[in-house]
Structure formats: C-alpha cells, structure tokens
Amino acid sequence: MKKNQKILLISQNSRYLINYRKDMYHVKEGHIDLSKIKKFGERINSSNGTEFVVIEPTFFDLIKKTKRGPQIILPKDAGTIISYSGIGAGSKVIDAGTGSGWMAAFLSRVVGSKGKVVTYEKSEQNYSVSNSNFKDLKLKNIKNKLGDVYSGIKEKNFDAIILDLAEPWKIPSIKQNVKTGGFIVCYLPQVSQIQEFTKFAESNNILIERIIEVSERPWTFDGRISRPKSQQIGHTAFLIFSRNL
According to the 3-state scheme, what is the secondary structure of 99-167? Predict the structure, then answer.
C-alpha cells in the first residue's frame, strides 16, 4: 500500500474514502490503525470493535468527492447518453458546457487512452473547478478549453457532441463538428428548449431519433418489507439524441 493512495473503508453502516498513511485515523467508531493495512480485501477493526473492509475505490467513489460548481450531469443521464450514442473505446467526443466536469470525466473513462474528449466552458470559475477535478482524477485524455461555443467550435468530424447548454441551436459550427451519422446529444431541462431544437434540426438535416427523460427510483429492503425510498431522482433534463445527416 502506497502513501496517499486512495482507499475505501466500509462497514455495515459507514464508509470512509481516505488517503492511506501509516498512522491512526479517527472515525465515529473510534480510531483505525492504518499501519496494519497491507493490501485491498483485508479486514480491520476500529478501537470499538467495528469491522471494516479495505476496498479499492471505484471511479464513482472518487468522482463523488470532487469539487462541485454548477449542477452536474448525474450517472443516470451520463450512462444513458453514452449508451444510446454508441460512445466507446477510441471515440472522439466534444462536451460543450463543462461545468464541474462530471460528464467529461465519465466520457474520458469510456473512450480510453486511444480516444479523445474536448470540453468547453466559458466561465473561468467553472473552468478552474473542472481543471482541478481532472487533475485529482488523473485524467489525461481530456482537453479542457476556456471559450464560448456560441462563437464556434474548432474541432471537426468528431463521433459525438454533448450539449449541456441553454441554446444549443445557436452553435454555428455544429454540422461541421460532428461526422456524418454522428450523434448530437442535448441535455435540456425545459420543453420550450426541445421545441426550439426540434425546429433547428428540421431545417438543418439533423434527424432526431429519440427524446427521453430518465428517472432513478431507489428502494429499501428490510427483512420482508420492501418499499421505494421517499427521496427519488426524478426529472433532471430531457435527453435529445439526434444524428447529423
């Protein structure tokens, strides 16, 4: 186990994402002697007898701890975007409206070392937040750009473009940014935005394949009792999947 390596300590009721170091770590269950940890998969007890399992954190465990700026694209939407638009290893993707960088980060993991993600953000504050997050997550295939996409996007013939913007129909270069048959995906909270983009698509030879929204409904199971949790993730945005013809 290396110093400052991220580790996840999980018990039945608690989880702690920490940087490994050879000293005591204080938690509500007492303290844990981290120097006793040698590898992932081990079990260790806190001073009050609570058993923790030492786990290697997933990418989602890590991204949840990154800095937040504006509203993020949640996994329920990010996963749907990636699946329906056919983004995979080696894909080249433009992400317009970086925000805190969650969508770009998910894309980075999927396209891999042979792929490419170019992301645009016009807010200097959000640009700084996303840069910091990409560095913390050790993502090297993202090109983060500070700029206004309404003035045009330089990249041409990419496999897909993800638009988390108020008025994506106003991007002048959108037909050139995506290859023929490539996906133009919009993340739009309001019905009026869908109407505007639909009109734009019809007049610019862009085929809208589907318009959906994704809900996430967590459930709780306690013995023989099962029920949906009171807090649910409902409408965040409509997702428009369209192809450049």
Answer: CCCHHHHHHHHHHCCCCEEEEEECCHHHHHHHHHHHHHCCCCCEEEEECCHHHCCCCCCEEEEEECCCC
